From TrEMBL, chains A, B:
Domain Aminoacyl-transfer RNA synthetases class-II family profile: 125-365
Protein name: proline--tRNA ligase
Entry GO terms, CC: aminoacyl-tRNA synthetase multienzyme complex; cytoplasm
EC class: ligase
Entries under NCBIfam families matching the protein: proS_fam_I
Any one GO molecular-function label of the UniProt entry: ATP binding
EC number: 6.1.1.15
Native organism taxonomy: Eukaryota, Fungi, Dikarya, Ascomycota, Pezizomycotina
Residue ranges, annotated region (Disordered): 1-51
Organism annotation: Alectoria fallacina
HAMAP family per UniProt: Pro_tRNA_synth_type3
Entry-linked Pfam families: HGTP_anticodon, ProRS-C_1, tRNA-synt_2b
Amino acid sequence: MDEEIADQTAAINMEQEPVEEPSKNALKKANKQKKLAEEKANKSATNTTKEAARSEAKKLIGYGISQACDDGNAKQGITSIDVAKDEDFSAWYQQTLTKGDFLDYYDVSGCYILKPASWFIWEQIRDWFDLRIKKVGVRNCAFPLFVSEEVLQREKAHIEGFAAEVAWVTHAGSAKLDKKIAIRPTSETVMYPYYAKWIRSHRDLPLRLNQWNSVVRWEFKNPTPFLRTREFHWQEGHTAYLTQEDASKEVLQILEFYAGVYEELLAVPVIRGRKTDKEKFAGGDYTTTVEGYIAATGRGIQGGTSHHLGQNFSKMFGISVEDPSAKEGEKKAAINVFQNSWGLSTRTIGVMVMTHGDDRGLVVPPRVSEIQVVIVPVGITAKSSEDERTSLHKQVDALEEILKAENIRVEADKRGYSPGWKFNDWEMRGVPLRLEFGPKDSAAHCVTTSRRDIEGNDGKGTIQITELAAGVKSLLSSIQKDLYGRADKVFKDHTKTITSWDDFVPALNDKNVCLIPHCLTEKCEDEIKEMSARTDSDEVVDEKAPAMGVRTFSEPILALTLKKECLL
Amino acid sequence: MDEEIADQTAAINMEQEPVEEPSKNALKKANKQKKLAEEKANKSATNTTKEAARSEAKKLIGYGISQACDDGNAKQGITSIDVAKDEDFSAWYQQTLTKGDFLDYYDVSGCYILKPASWFIWEQIRDWFDLRIKKVGVRNCAFPLFVSEEVLQREKAHIEGFAAEVAWVTHAGSAKLDKKIAIRPTSETVMYPYYAKWIRSHRDLPLRLNQWNSVVRWEFKNPTPFLRTREFHWQEGHTAYLTQEDASKEVLQILEFYAGVYEELLAVPVIRGRKTDKEKFAGGDYTTTVEGYIAATGRGIQGGTSHHLGQNFSKMFGISVEDPSAKEGEKKAAINVFQNSWGLSTRTIGVMVMTHGDDRGLVVPPRVSEIQVVIVPVGITAKSSEDERTSLHKQVDALEEILKAENIRVEADKRGYSPGWKFNDWEMRGVPLRLEFGPKDSAAHCVTTSRRDIEGNDGKGTIQITELAAGVKSLLSSIQKDLYGRADKVFKDHTKTITSWDDFVPALNDKNVCLIPHCLTEKCEDEIKEMSARTDSDEVVDEKAPAMGVRTFSEPILALTLKKECLL
């Protein structure tokens, strides 16, 4: 599948450098920040022994972006996102992910470490989606990571889309393998020879398999965490039907589940659409997609794709059954099965971060946040007695227990840092709701609440302790709803229907998604892309795929507005 | 970790050939079976068009073992396991897995397709284990598949254990990479440079991460499905503690969870133990293990390992914190953290199959079986009217609904095959409970039950329809309990305490696990292995690791009986 590939809508020009080469700008910022942190540092001196022991390890993994984001000393002071989202979106995205503890850079370029807070979100998506596909009859399985060269190259149009990015294993230990072996870039050709073997009768249909795995596409340009990575995690569904009608129904059923992941879990609005032939999945009949909108860049972004493969692969791989409608005694014709494939990746998490994150860092919707509520004890000063501290911590523990009992994912932060430091830390991590609890709250039998999604006093409130669980649940539910509502308004406000060419490029430059009439010929599509691209001569164009790097419109949305006449 | 490696106890001499080279014997059997099936086939002729279209695909994936197991024509007749478990264990295991629809062979040797029924079991294990480790504070994450050569080779003793089996990626597309990149054989060296970066203070401890992934060890000899495969799925936990005491506690806590997976889910008894120094994980301090017993071979089998790594890796990778117990003003010494790693793989499924499977195929414990109950309509003959058939099927649907409503995983089999064919099919697949329902049952308001784990009339019974759900639940619970009970009795009956050398080899030859006094020196260990090996000169010895291929005793059990005196 083309989750990370034929992806012009994701061309948001994330120009950050890979970890090996931090930009001069980033280094300057890092140094400035480090200095600041050192001044603020309330600890005396760097432990040189420790640093020495660690330096070798640091060398091994490269010490690039991490300098800018997570220096040991900086941690003693207040670390924060030091670039605004609308100022340098790429740098903001990097910092938000690393300082928010979602991700770390890795010493193999284009690969990233997904830390527990982001992996938890992927697990939520998995469980939600898995429940739904299993209910409709899809079964999970596991095909191997490896595929032989011969099998990989079976479907020509398909492999052309991936050939340049296939990682090859040529050696095991010190021995050279007889034949090099590919790491799957997607599993159509891995699985379909076995579909040919397993599907022997119409009784074996539909065959609906899915797997949660990782695939490898060795992209050489501009890796971007979650959006464009050399190894990425996803699910890939592969199904076979007797009739095109049934297969087509499934394509949309799955697309609706993908929309649900975005809308219900991640609070991200998406548009369901169909790609143009030029942009569809290589080897398939047509591609449907859910597309989001990143306000900061004004670009559409591909969210997940559900493909109808028609009989292209089934003919190549000889997947057929006898026509069950043939009458007794008639020669039973062989019918090639109709196939779909569909994939949703950890890209979902990147889209979520870009949609909701702000200048203070991550903002995570409650339904997918590993920690939904953090409780921070406040009002304890140097003058407070040990008894006062102990008593407050005990009460905080009790509050935590009340919420845990209601299956709210809560953490009481009793670490030895100041409340201000903690507030900032949890804000960077995007925890949706903070409860503050001090002697004054205790006396008033309430907790102070602070919503992550609304800054300042507008996001503050109190809940009586007697109504703690219900109050927290209600707030979490409001946060989830409001995050979606705000993103949806922004998306709608930036969706323009354009009927004249003169309005088109200005609308794009105003960060809009444009609905246009279009004849759907490839010639016009290319021309529109080229002409809109020219307005952005200062932008970096991806050499590998010139049509993808330009500021262009979203094909799926275009396809939705299918009309015979054309903007050109 | 050494899940699939330093694994003398798994030396059950599975001598089956890889898929590329089906043995002459297997081919002979296959042909014989094919002929029989063709004779029995109630369909007229092979559809040659279909076969032609498929033949190309068959060539691609190799058409070895599949011929023996799953030929298209064979499916029309009764397919069954055509070799007894105690006659040719290796062939029995192969057939049981493929005909039971757990697994298919793959055209990259040593890699296998885990089909939905076996993958479902792995998901059950994952959910069960995940719940428990999360409860005690472990968090999941995802580190990359790849590791650079430099990082991989950091810990010498460790890499020595894996070097010969590491798969290397050298090319991407047609481009040669500057530096070759390894596919992780396990993730110690992948993760620990980052532990050094992330762990900055004792406040960051314990750090407890886990991942569910696959790793690659390119073994060159005797691949065996689930037990010894080039890619395998597992979880790997990696944790760091301030004190050895806390780390050691975790080692046993995890080991107990592993035992729980076997005992509670898979109904397989295991012994908890500790490996000798010779057999421990390369680079670690000590290795604990759960070990099962395969009665058919009389061998112990490693089930899962939980290692204490001590400070070996933390010294290598510079993972340290300042001593928090240092007094104010004192120089704070750097303490290297104490680490554990622990892994449990899909090998669990192989052990389960070997333990419970019988001459009719798989036997799957109810708790992990994808389908717990199958309902087969019976008593419909050629003479029955269409109304009678429809009416029976409706009643069967109603029974299915009753059980589904109680969250019992049930399937009504209304396919167009004979009841006998279906009985056999579901028995091969190991579905724990079959309900038969025909006009006679309907008239008597009951269903006929047939337990997979008890053959013939002893396993039969009836349940009144009014008590269907309760009756089925009770039966499933009995089956789970009885499977464990029987396996446990066999294990206990074959566990012998031996105090004289003269009794030792005969006891081993009688398929016993032996508890012996031992001084725990490596010299004696080697001698005992060598001397016991000599008794089996006709067995194939694994050239790569001579000490592992012989019929030997189980180290962990030996270690459990630690005494100063020695059998030698």
